[in-house]
Amino acid sequence: MAASPGSPAALRRVREALSAALGELREEAFQAASQEATKLSLAFSRPPPPSLQEQESLAEGVQSAVLAAASVYYQLPKGQGTTLRRAVRDATVQVVEGMIQLIEVILRTPLQSLSQEQLVSTGGVWEACSRVFRMPRDNQAAVTLAITQALGIVNDALEEMKQAQTEGGDPYSDVLEDEDLGSRANRDTYWSAADRQLLGPCLGLVKAAKICLKRVQGAVRGRGRTDKAEQVAQLDDLADIAGDVSPSVDELVLSTYPPVNQLALRLNAAKLASVLKKMLELTSASFVCPPSEENWVQFLAGAVDHNMDKIKELTQGLL
């Protein structure tokens, strides 16, 4: 039996049609911007310069292309999701900034031949325009991408932290030469015994951050939907909190390097723990986490509490 006009199946078809139309609009607008950048660059690649009439035509073409690219963002309905709109906005800004840079290079470069700087600037506009073909098509894809980017940053920070701890007492051994530290007698570049006790639970907290992001990423990718406004909003909340994880991880990792301020380390650990607990709460309350998936949420919440409690225990005397 055919689906009624108001059924979820019908709504999904409408959403898919809108997404396809928006995708075509994006590609057409950004391709036009790329073409106008090429025309502008070639026109000023060798003497004589374009006539005043030709310059006006080029300027109008660039302006129209940039406005068309910007209109893609403004025509994107807010109901499509904040994360998706942010991705489109960022792509548009990169195109506009690239075009401004290209014009500035042309204005300050003598008209003799196509300079290396002009080539680089033109290529920058091409690259910014080509990103539209890799952009997410709906909010589920946009949120998945945002979480994936945060996961990559956290993974890099975790590997950096592991490497520093495996290099012995001097985590700066790979960046400071002997002459920089004299006889390496500067103890500010070494961990004390008390510092080393803190490294374990800090590492555990960063590992928990990585696993949290990975599990939320999988949940959004596998069960994310954008059929209802509530689903779109919940996905946006997950993207926002995931965006808070990576800077919190970076702050904690930086605070583990000697000389360690243990009170600052504790505060940074508490901030990361709070962000992770909030992300797990939002995940548990969202549609991407059915009751059958609540076990891993509870397990990770327990891991966060365990490592944070250990850090509190080791820094209790500072309060």
TrEMBL record:
Location of this chain's protein in the cell: Cytoplasm; Nucleus
Pfam families, A to Z: GCIP_C, GCIP_N
Primary localization class, coarse: cytoplasm
Domain spans labelled Cyclin-D1-binding protein 1-like C-terminal: 177-281
InterPro entries found in the cross-reference section: GCIP-like, GCIP-like_N, GCIP_C
Residues annotated as domain Cyclin-D1-binding protein 1-like N-terminal: 28-166
Keywords noted in UniProt: Cell cycle, Cytoplasm, Nucleus
UniProt GO cellular component terms: cytoplasm; nucleus
Family affiliation: Belongs to the CCNDBP1 family.
The protein's name: Cyclin-D1-binding protein 1
Organism of origin: Podarcis lilfordi
